[in-house]
Design a protein that fits this description.
Chain lengths: 233, 587
């Protein structure tokens, strides 16, 4: 791959990224750029490397090739604990909450500005109701909501969400979309891995489709029909 | 080969060396028991010297008494059987009703070993106190400095062969499964507390047999043979030698133990070096010396005799002569002939002051698929938890085909023919895909004898063939570890495993979560066809209305821990009460 055609100082620039688990390379040749305020949806069938992409971008897995630049700085292969300082929030697909801590404690760990959490808690009243109980007692969908509130509560410039709507009821999915749109209008970027195409269609401006560990389509012009074609089993 | 190498030691070296080696081989057999419990079945015993010491003291006492009356020798097997029975009892008591291994067991065994050492010290009349039980005669006219060694070699060979064989049986796979995901295994109908107690009884028997020979080899048993220090050393030798196979513990006890005994007097810094070796091995070689040897051995000689242990079922799979799996064991449910009937009667569940289920009333009858929908936190998964023994009811009861199930254990409920797929896919991550499927197939089918037969690995069922045709990756990726699959593939694998039980009642918690629209269609087709093939009742929690529409026309809406409405999908969607709380959407 040729080097970057131009250097961008704002947003996320990923060039020729690849990696996986140990000797197994799961993902290859991924290049993408994400401008401030942009929402990028990542689609693909199961096992094509979507979650691996998230883990590579958040430093949970080492890169085997390529570079990642965030606001002009190279951030490939850093440790995940630097994410917060870099202004990157991440809601993983599994392992969403600390089961032994209460919901309030889960939301407090990042020392948030509770005023910024307020609109989220107003939307997701269920989370506020559960504030005092251990997160481990929550249902699967409620845990997803807590994880969503926590990651958006970080007010990060870039938020990575891995299947945020899994197990979440329709009304709450619509509210999630609304919050994401509000934040992106205010200049925050999102990278979202999702299987719920309806949800993704309502928030994303750009789409990346992965297959067999490589990008097969990337554009800001897409139709639901075309995307469904890529996802056909 | 092991027998040959060990038997040649007295000839190549001298009797004293062989005597010394013999002592550490005995420790090695006790350490093999630690490896069985810890490396295989996943629970760490910290007081294994308790059984070693019990075997040593009781064998010593029998041998001393038999000098006056030779018929008392017939009591010698008790020196092994009693400690083994004690081990079984301890494990059953500690592990009853548990489904995650905590530190309790380790701490209890540690305390028991310390207590036993105290008793051995205090109770001088019986044990000889601090000075020990002395003047123990040799067994059967053998000489402790020469011929007893061969008895020890025989024990080592027997224990290694026994473990090597057990580790390849279905039972050996179940022990690994207990270590990885005890909760899941219970839902296949296996009483995991018994599986663990069995492993611990065997570990106790190994330690006690080693202890019994130790008594006759040493002629003296002191409280050191029963206490905390030896217990810890057994754990260290196991960790350094390798806890996953039968050889590692032997290697650790002999390699590290013997080396320590030699070097500790010669080189004053030896203990420090030993500590560094221990730390290095734990950090760099979690599988111990045996694991490192295996890794490097395979690199040098890829097709060596050591290779090929990755997938337990891989050898059996090479032989294509599959056996039809026996029908599901219906002995546990007395009411097979009755139609399927599930009743939640005014079920209440409260946790930490929060009402999870409040007066849930739900009656289902006959075969077919029912869907449960409802807002987040409505109690959908909780109703499954209450039904399968994972949530205690504060009020009300649940009946399945005329039998009260609330209050029963998860494995008992599974044996009644209730199978459950979890919301977050739950599989045995470090076992191969095929091993996962095999274990599911054995659930409710295999009896104790069949769990010891290699032929059980070759069981297949009609449903298995159907599932492999539906999800080809189950066949093409069958040697991969289940943990390496994507979440969606784990969804499909766990669905397949749950279906393989051929249950009477099938509980599926969001089986299409994390799947694309097309994959959701495929998954729902498999569910529908399998339910027809099995002839069971299915209860499916689902948020995707497209999936609900494909699956069933019997929909139940839960809200705030109770049933809000039941009916066809059209009825439900037209119901103003439902519209007020839940509209439902599509992927």
């Amino acid at each position: 791959m040729s080097p970057l055609p131009h250097s961008t100082t704002a947003g996320l620039v990923v060039d020729n990224l690849g990696g996986g688990y140990g000797d197994t390379i799961v993902l290859r040749n991924v290049s993408l750029s994400l401008a401030p305020g942009q929402v990028l949806g990542v689609l693909g069938r199961n096992g094509v490397g979507k979650s691996t992409l998230m883990r590579l971008l958040t430093g949970f897995l080492p890169l085997s090739q390529g570079t990642v630049h965030w606001q002009g700085e190279p951030i490939g292969n850093r440790r995940p604990n630097h994410n917060r300082a870099l202004g990157i929030a991440y809601a993983p697909q599994e392992g969403l909450v600390f089961d032994a801590l209460t919901v309030r404690e889960n939301l407090s760990l990042q020392r948030p500005d509770w005023r910024s959490l307020e609109p989220l808690l107003t939307s997701f009243g269920r989370v506020r109701e559960r504030m005092a109980i251990k997160a481990g007692v929550l249902s699967g969908g409620e845990k997803k909501l807590v994880s969503f509130v926590r990651s958006l509560g970080e007010g990060a410039a870039l938020t990575l969400l891995d299947e945020p709507t899994e197990g979440v009821q329709h009304e709450n999915i619509a509210l999630m979309a609304q919050h994401i749109r509000q934040r992106s209008d205010a200049g925050a970027s999102f990278l979202i891995v999702e299987q719920n195409l309806s949800f993704l269609m309502s928030v994303m401006q750009r789409v990346l489709v992965l297959d067999h560990g490589e990008p097969v389509f990337q554009s800001d012009r897409f139709t639901r029909q075309a995307l469904e074609h890529y996802l056909r089993v | 080969m092991l027998a040959l190498v060990l038997s040649s030691v007295p000839h190549l070296s001298d009797d004293f060396r062989a005597y010394q080696l013999g002592t550490y081989l005995l420790y090695g057999v006790a350490a093999q028991g630690v490896a069985l419990a810890w490396g295989r079945a996943g629970f760490l015993p910290l007081g294994q010297a308790l059984f070693f010491g019990l075997g040593a003291y009781s064998a010593g006492m029998v041998l001393i008494a038999s000098q006056a009356n030779a018929t008392l020798l017939a009591l010698l097997p008790l020196a092994v059987l009693l400690p083994a029975a004690l081990a079984y009892a301890i494990a059953r008591l500690v592990f009853a009703r548990q489904y995650v291994s905590g530190p309790n067991f380790s701490l209890i065994t540690l305390a028991l070993a310390m207590l036993a050492a105290q008793l051995a010290n205090q109770w001088s009349g019986l044990t000889g106190g601090f000075n020990g039980l002395a003047n123990i005669p040799e067994i059967g006219g053998l000489d402790r400095y020469s011929t007893v060694y061969y008895l020890i070699v025989a024990l080592v060979v027997a224990s290694t062969a026994l473990l090597g064989w057990l580790y390849r049986t279905p039972l050996g796979a179940l022990w690994l499964a207990v270590a990885q995901n005890e909760n899941r295994l219970q839902f296949f109908g296996f009483a995991t507390d018994r599986l663990k107690a069995l492993a611990f009884a065997l570990a106790g028997a190994l330690a006690a047999s080693a202890g019994a020979l130790y008594a006759t080899q040493q002629g003296l048993v002191t409280p050191q043979a029963i206490g905390f220090e030896l217990s810890t050393e057994l754990v260290i030798w196991t960790a350094v030698g390798g806890r996953f196979g039968p050889y590692g513990a032997l290697l650790g006890a002999v390699g590290i133990g013997l080396l320590s005994a030699e070097l500790r007097d010669v080189w004053i810094h030896w203990q420090v070096a030993m500590a560094l070796i221990f730390i290095l091995v734990v950090l760099r070689f979690p599988a111990g010396m045996a694991g490192a040897l295996q890794t490097y051995g395979r690199r040098l000689w890829p097709r060596s005799w050591m290779a090929g242990a990755e997938s337990l079922s891989s050898q059996s799979a090479a032989a294509p002569n599959y056996l039809p799996a026996p029908p599901r064991n219906r002995a546990a449910d007395t009411s097979t002939l009755e139609p399927i009937r599930l009743e939640f009667n005014r079920v209440n569940v409260r946790i930490q002051g929060v009402s999870i289920l409040s007066g849930l009333q739900l009656h289902l009858r006959g075969a077919g698929i029912h869907c449960i929908i409802g807002p987040n936190g409505a109690g959908k998964t909780s109703s499954f938890n209450a039904l399968t023994g994972r949530l205690p009811l504060s009020d009300g009861d649940i009946h399945f085909s005329g039998r009260r199930v609330s209050g029963l254990r998860a494995d008992t409920i599974a044996r009644m023919g209730i199978a459950r797929k979890f919301q977050i896919p739950s599989v045995f991550s470090a076992l191969s895909v095929r091993d996962n499927l095999c274990i599911a197939l054995w659930g409710n089918r295999a009896n104790a004898l069949q769990l010891l037969q290699a032929s059980t690995w070759r069981w297949r069922s009609t449903l298995w063939e159907f599932l492999i045709a539906s999800f080809p990756f189950l066949e093409t990726e069958s040697d991969r570890h289940a943990g390496e699959l994507s979440q969606g593939q784990r969804q499909m694998l766990e669905l397949a495993m749950t279906l393989l039980m051929e249950p009477r009642l099938l509980l599926l918690d969001e089986p299409c979560a994390g799947l694309s629209v097309a994959e959701t269609g495929q998954q729902t087709d498999v569910i529908k066809r399998a339910v027809t093939l099995i002839g069971c009742t299915a209860l499916v929690i689902e948020h995707d209305m497209a999936a609900v529409a494909r699956l069933s026309d019997q929909v139940h809406v839960l809200h705030q821990g109770r049933l809000l409405a039941s009916g066809s999908l059209a009825d439900i969607q037209g119901n103003p009460d439902v519209q007020a709380v839940y509209s439902g959407g599509q992927k």
